[in-house]
Write a structure and sequence with these properties.
3 copies of one chain form a homotrimer. With about 475 residues, chain A is α/β, with parallel strands linked by helices. Chain A is built from 19 helices and 8 strands. Chain A has helices spanning about 5-10, 30-40, 65-70, 95, 115-125, 140-145, 160-170, 185-190, 200-230, 245-270, 280-290, 290-310, 315-330, 340-365, 370, 375-405, 420-435, 440-450, 460, and strands at about 20-25, 45-50, 65, 75-80, 100-105, 130, 150-155, 175-180. The first copy, chain A, has an 8-stranded mixed β-sheet with strand order 3-2-1-4-5-6-7-8, with helices on both faces. Chains A, B, C: Belongs to the STEAP family. Chains A, B, C: It comes from Corvus moneduloides (New Caledonian crow).
């Protein structure tokens, strides 16, 4: 019903409708779409336009008047015109005095103007009550009623009553208003629709960088080295073998990077003896993108799982298997089952499966609709306890799998360590330090600090108020 | 807590409670469940009933009176009786004058009556303020407090104030009201609980039809042909081999069908030179079910992945592998590794894995709670850019895998093309036309048209107002 | 934007702000975090504190006064102090008369005190209007603005108007208020943040118990028996082989346990001839945790799928395969393809894949954001019809896979039945009884009973009002 309702939904009859008239300045795409939707929701709509002629595109039930006439008919005026043309509102200042002006404009790039459009409008017309709203909704989504994307409408403004009036309209249009505070938030709201996954930016660039590094590292050791010294052309390793070496390494390192800032925070708090001082900026930023790092790690882990599972389907692998069996036959010697090998192979597979299972569980609980249904204690239990368990299992998986290469000199081609050794540095460091931190002699003072105790209370005098973000 | 709270939740003491009394006409299942829930939320409830005897099933704290007496005690009266019995309300018209009547009735089939029950009620009692609500909630869900299904309550009515009163009750019962406009929307709201995935209907029937066609196509070529001409009984292909041929074909075709209507829309807009004219109806409908087509395509792709991954576990496959190895041994000839084969096998696997990975990403972002947290630009980036990338990867996967059969005459059993060739027609067409459309000489006028420019402004005079749905 | 907005969000200018002053008693972590957030949302905040000196940690724009002075400035007072110190409020009773007191306290363990903190506060200050709120939100989440966990704020109180005022503040802080009724609900709300997945407890303990039992059962039959009687050390079976036997058994049994209570309910209703009597308590509880049982079953099924798919990668399996091929070569006899084996192997794989596919579909529709978008009929269709289909497919998968062992005497080591036979008892029983229940001669009276018909209406006289939970 959500999908196509607006097409069917009837216009409200005039008789018993008590909704207040809304005025819209501007007859562009968005102004028309918004007006159409409002009429459907029972609001009488009047357009203010320079020319009252171009009425054929405007919703049938709407009136079109001059700006001054239209403004007089309504308490709320939606300014569906571009910032460059705001000047023409100045002569109307008297009529607009006391009215609620809804700024719905967007810019073409981030921070295009020194002040937000809504603040600029409020400066031009100091007697009006300016509210920022609707800029995050697309005209297309409004009109088609599909709204696959967000239904959230961010609202801000200095006048609480005006904001309430606009939020009521938002609710009547089946959208969800979200109060973002005073008009100073308008800049941020105007930047919002221009953003392309801002908190994902750092984790994604980090992952791309590391992935490229490990890819070329493997390429050098597995393809180029083999070609030069063993005359084997294994260029097809680029398609599956190397990605399947890079993916698990990336997954493990990124998962460890999710838990590393918490370790740093604990050490800093222990060292300072107080939680009432701001963390360094890089640590704050790192902590805010832990969820993203974790989800990218999960993506790499999933790719690793699928890449591994297709192994038996690869031409190279079936050729290698056949070769092994044929050589056994020709040498007339059947290899016995090595119990150690069976144990190693089965246990690294089992560790990997369990680790991946917990990892997926973490991913599912980070879905907004799931995390909304758990309390704080449950959320911390899953993200912290189960998260560390997943890290331990994945590290053990890598250790058991790659263990045999650590001491074998043939694994050090060009004196470079195998990629498994590189992958284990960060996770092992995190786990070792975490292990130290849960010792009672370290854990007790840390818990005290986090409950507000200060080793040296003078410190707090210098600090601004901030709750340290290491609480998780 | 959401789950079992209502069982524990205490009834409000009478002393300080300021909620207004609610009257319920009818003591059936739903009337009782609603009354019970309202009492829990602090509303005094009075039942209107023909007989005041059958009180043992009614919530303890509720009063039971005659209809007239009960109605006088409350401003809001919930009509929990069936449409057939609405007539008996006519004698009460005077008492009900000005009261808010909440119609909660449902019908047994879609569009059972010419007008909705709520409109019928409003006609019978023109002096009352009728509001449609609560019909989408089940008595069982209300009572048990589990509410695993939807918490949304659609509300509509001509009187805004009456609607607000009802929506406040909805909120007090921990449900989410959704304002659907005037009483004309009641028909749609009454049809809603009777619907069984209406927007899924066309995509599912299309998929079933195509699946059946491809299944019998494969059955003819792979099982029947082989049986007739080669005397091999491969009937067990029905279980895995053929489904694993049909699934990828379906996934690829359906994914291409997601992007085909956008192509059509662009061509139509370019041809017409304006976006201010309605698309043909079939295109409109097609565009509204793109998400469903995409999700069904994802289901087929997932099945294809699992069917492929179990391949090495199949008795037939291990028999074929053994046979190959044994024949190599007996002929005393070891086949060398073909670099070309290794490249082909590895690259179609890698392409498929990456395509499927993007496909799953598209599926996750179409989850309501995820798409609610992205802005319009991010949503379009994922659904359009990543979607096309997934289509390209999946098409390449099929091309590399099936490529060797295109030119081989043995692949044309009964002069019919192999199924891979059929699968590639739509996706290749979509990709070729899309490639043409992104050329600057085509893209520039199209962008202008979508921004509102018209080649021949006269056209718009004839058209109704509509924003073309090709904006995505 | 949701993530880091609060850091950037500007404080509201004093000029045009019309929000009412809020007073906060207590300058602890939570009091400060809440005050900070309120100032960001435009509320003037005044702190009541014993000492007005420790002002350096308090938000800059807040005033700090004595308790009495602060209380006089605001209509809403947030009590951010611990229950033990509530006594000191008694001298302020006169000033606090008629004010809205918001109790935000939490306890350290479930049901720590006989009455909830909020009720205790209401007893101490009978003239004040106590509202319970905010206790489910963490100070850290409020301050950092991340709010990855729940945004829901449970609110309860006896005074409707006071509750509305608090809920407006909750909304202004971008949180979602949820009205839980009168102050008697405070105990439950105070227990909420202390809970750790309460409805998951029984399903998880049941699963752990059954898993342990089946694990040791398999260990005895597969590892110990083999070691004693066949002198084979298969200890490495512990890593993959045994888990992959336990997981599918658990998944099947738990899935059957999801549908078993519905069967019991139907039988009880048929026997009693009425739906107006409460089910036994164990059945009620069982029914409320069906979703959790189903999700745990899905987890086991997923593990089974991955454990199965890694089979070809196991050292033991490739050793066994090689041994088989080599023995064929050495005996110079090539085994022909057994059509029956191919059929059995392919069909149990296909049945399992389809069953798992439906199972995953059930899991996805139980995500809160998906189930919110389907109506009651659709939800029942998926959970009941598709659920039974999944159960049938999974049972058939096990029957076809394990079928050959039923009649083979070698499968009965130590006279104990194979684990597959144990696994099939519950699902087969459920399916057989369900099959009986859908016969018209049984289904018709059951449907009548569920629509309210009673065989022996006297019964209802004794019963309290309850809608039986078997409706689903």
């Amino acid at each position: 019903m959500n999908k196509n309702s607006s097409n069917i939904m009837a216009l409200a009859p005039n008789t018993s409708n008590k909704r207040e008239t809304v005025c819209i300045f501007g007859t562009g795409d968005f102004g028309r779409a918004l007006g159409h939707k409002m009429i459907q929701s029972g609001y009488p709509v009047v357009y203010g336009s320079r020319s009252t002629q171009i009425s054929n595109l405007i919703p049938k039930d709407a009136e079109v008047l001059s700006h001054a006439e239209a403004a007089q008919k309504a308490a709320i005026i939606i300014i569906a015109i571009q910032r460059q043309h705001y000047n023409f509102l100045i002569p109307l200042a008297e009529i607009l005095h006391g009215k609620v002006l809804v700024d719905i404009s967007n810019n073409l790039k981030l921070n295009q103007y020194p002040e937000s459009n809504a603040e600029y409008l409020a400066q031009l017309l100091p007697g009006s009550r300016v509210v920022k709203a609707f800029n995050t909704v697309s005209a297309w989504a409004l009109q088609s009623g599909t709204l696959d994307a967000s239904r959230q409408v961010f609202v801000c403004g200095d006048d609480v009553e005006a904001k309430q009036m606009v939020m009521n309209i938002v609710r009547a249009l089946s959208l969800t208003p979200l109060d973002k505070g005073s008009l100073l938030a308008a800049q941020e709201i105007e930047n919002y629709p221009l953003q392309l996954f801002p908190i994902w930016k750092f984790p994604i660039f980090l992952s791309l960088g590391l992935t490229a590094f490990f890819f070329f590292y493997c390429l050098a050791l597995d393809v180029i080295y083999t070609y030069i010294y063993e005359r084997n052309n294994f260029s097809f390793f680029i398609a599956i073998t190397i990605p399947n070496r890079v993916c698990p390494v990336m997954a493990l390192i990124l998962l460890a990077l999710v838990y590393l800032p918490g370790i740093f925070a604990a050490i800093i708090q222990l060292y300072r003896g107080t939680k009432y001082r701001r963390f360094p900026d890089w640590l704050d930023k790192w902590m805010l993108c832990r969820k993203q790092l974790g989800l990218i790690a999960l993506a790499f882990a999933s790719l690793h799982v699928v890449f591994t599972l297709v192994t038996p389907m690869r031409a190279f692998v079936s050729w290698r298997t056949s070769k092994g069996i044929i050589s056994q036959v020709l040498n007339n010697k059947t290899e016995p089952l090595s119990n150690t090998n069976a144990w190693i192979s089965d246990s690294y597979l089992a560790l990997g499966i369990l680790g991946f299972f917990l990892f997926v569980l973490l991913g599912i609980t980070s879905l907004p609709s799931v995390s909304n249904n758990v309390n704080w204690r449950e959320f911390r239990f899953v993200q912290s306890k189960l998260g560390y368990l997943a890290l331990i299992l994945c590290t053990a998986h890598t250790l058991v799998y790659g263990g045999k290469w650590f001491l074998s000199p043939s694994a050090y081609k060009w004196y470079l360590p195998n990629i498994y050794i590189l992958a284990l540095i960060v996770p092992c460091a995190v786990l070792v330090v975490k292990f130290v931190l849960i010792f009672p002699c370290v854990d007790k003072p840390l818990t005290q600090i986090r409950q507000g105790w200060e080793r040296n209370p003078k410190h707090s005098e210098q600090s601004n108020y901030i709750i340290n973000k290491s609480a998780v």
